[in-house]
Amino acid sequence: MTENGQSLRSIMRAAITLTVAAAAYEALARSGYFAPALLPTLGNVTRALFASLTDGTMIAHAAFTLYRVLFGFCLAVVVGIPLGILMARFQRVEHFFLPLVSALMPIPSFALVPLFMLWFGIGNLTTVLIVFYAATFPMVFNTWSGVRSVNPLWLRAAGAMGADENSLFWKVIIPGASPFIITGMRQSFLRAWIAVVGAEMIAASDWGLGWVIFDAKEFLNTDVMLAALIVIGCIGYVFERLVFGSVEKATVQRWGMTRAAKG
Amino acid sequence: MQDAATTIAVDRTLGRSSGGERLRLIARNVFPFVVVGGIWEIIAWTNIFPRRLFPTLEEVASSFVQLTISGILPHHTIDTVIRLLSGFALAGIFGITIGVLMARSRRAEDVFLPLVSICAPIPGLAYAPLFLLWFGLGNLSSVLLVGFVSAFPIIFNSWTGVKAVKEIWVRSAQSMGADDRRLFSHVILPGALPYILTGLRLGLAQAWRILVAVEMLAAVPWGLGWMIFGARKFLNTDVMMAGIVVIAVIGLALEKFVFRKIEDYTVVRWGMITS
Q1: Under an 8 A CB cutoff, do A108 and B121 touch?
Q2: Interface predicted TM-score (ipTM)
Q3: Nearest CA of chain B to the CA of A194: how many Å?
Q4: Residue by residue, what is the 3-state secondary structure of chain A?
Q5: Does A157 contact chain B (CB < 8 Å)?
Q6: Chain A residues lying within 8 Å of B152, measured CB to CB
Q7: Where do the domains of chain A lie?
Q8: How close does chain A come to B247, measured CA to CA in Å?
Q9: Interchain CB distance below 8 Å, B216 and A112
């Protein structure tokens, strides 16, 4: 069997699995054994998804969530990358921040939600700050280890060829550390995405995908809940695959860094 | 995994230095906390923010001691840890089984991989309301959710681990006459163990993060997450801070003591990785 036929068969089997799973779910939902409010049929879920998409509410919720997650994530990048670079380049900075970062890192961001709610109230500010808190640490750690792992030979070679501090930094250190930095961005976006959904549930404001899910629970709108879950999954997938995948292609792979980083 | 790397690095420098060196190292690690604590204290004493919302460190420490003596804090902690361990045990058993099955049989891979890769990228907490509706408020849904969410990294890592076992080891064991059971327990499992342990470690970290949040939503009677969330209603910021400290300490301990020890006893000893 050829490689192509093999993968075709895998796709077929995957499709069959998903169809069977969907059919089993549908059968369970229609059997009437469970309350239909708790286990809506797939048709109802699709209908809820389309209704909320066409009247724009789901899009508005998604826009609010995206605004929060991107705001927090950008803050984390703006703070995390410079801090990581400083920590890697200056020992004094490293000695000061490394213990703090190691102590704060194991605190789950959700544990801070109630505290932030008291301090900053319910709504955008709290959610953005929680996202920022969750996303900063992977950013700092990856940048730090990326800059530290730049091959010293490259630094010396560039120095011998007469590169000054400025061009050494921009032409050697930053591209050298970029695989780590991009991995860090990927990880922190993942964290941010998890944090935003949780923060929206607990620090319930009035918009946002996390809030939709939690609010739907109060009214037993399981179909809306599942629809929001689908939207959350799709947005996460789009960011993970399309955005970060293409960023990686445009920078790291083009500079030939992934191979260099591995070897 | 990044934090694991740094803790190892810090440990190494600790181990190498001796006497005065060591003291200086400890002083250097404590210094930032003293600075931050001092700033905190100054802000708290100046009363820029209401004292109820921004307690001094003494107040946090005294409420920590009080809660510990009265047995409230230990009770919360024990309930949380039990929930964590039972959820994580579920995730470990099912995760490793499914992961190994997926790697060993193509049919299982075709069946499970699409399901797993659809469910895994959705943030764990998004499932929480669904689980609450299906399984009710309380222990059952929080344990199940923790198990469900932390199973994914375990599945992925055991799957990759078993796949990464070198084909030549398997074939040489087979040619030396190992039957399936011996092949599994003597070649495949030890070979995949570094990956499986990484998966367990990631899963545990995930379980810990999710559990704290789920306790806030699931209205369990005892638990650290619930304690923090409940304290909000009475503006007991000091209780909250005490709870956060305990959560941080448990998180650190799980990572540093439990998994480092398991790794030392198994994979490091068998020479699979060098610590």
Answers
A1: no
A2: 0.76
A3: 5
A4: CCHHHHHHHHHHHHHHHHHHHHHHHHHHHHCCCCCCCCCCCHHHHHHHHHHHHHCCHHHHHHHHHHHHHHHHHHHHHHHHHHHHHHHHHCHHHHHHHHHHHHHHCCCCHHHHHHHHHHHHCCCHHHHHHHHHHHHHHHHHHHHHHHHHCCCHHHHHHHHHCCCCHHHHHHHHHHHHHHHHHHHHHHHHHHHHHHHHHHHHHHCCCCCCHHHHHHHHHHCCCHHHHHHHHHHHHHHHHHHHHHHHHHHHHHHHHCCCHHHHHHC
A5: no
A6: none
A7: 1-34, 36-262
A8: 6
A9: no
The answer as to CATH 4.10.520.10 being correct for domain B61-268 is no
Cα B138 to Cα A241, B131, B135, B146, B206, distances in angstroms:
36, 10, 8, 13, 20
**Alpha-helix residue ranges (DSSP H) falling in chain B:** 2-16, 20-46, 57-69, 72-104, 106-119, 128-135, 139-164, 167-175, 180-182, 189-217, 224-231, 237-253, 260-263
C-beta atoms of A110 and B225 within 8 A = yes
| CA-wise closest residue to A227 among A238, A241, A216, A242 | A216
Single pTM value for the model: 0.81
Q: Can you give the pLDDT of all 275 residues of chain B as single tens digits?
A: 344 444 444 444 444 546 778 888 888 888 888 888 888 888 888 877 787 778 888 888 888 888 888 888 888 888 999 999 999 999 999 999 999 998 888 888 888 888 888 888 788 888 888 888 888 888 888 999 999 999 999 999 999 888 888 888 888 888 888 888 888 888 888 888 888 888 888 898 889 888 888 888 887 778 888 888 888 878 788 888 888 888 888 888 887 777 777 777 776 666 666 54
CATH of domain A36-262: 1.10.3720.10
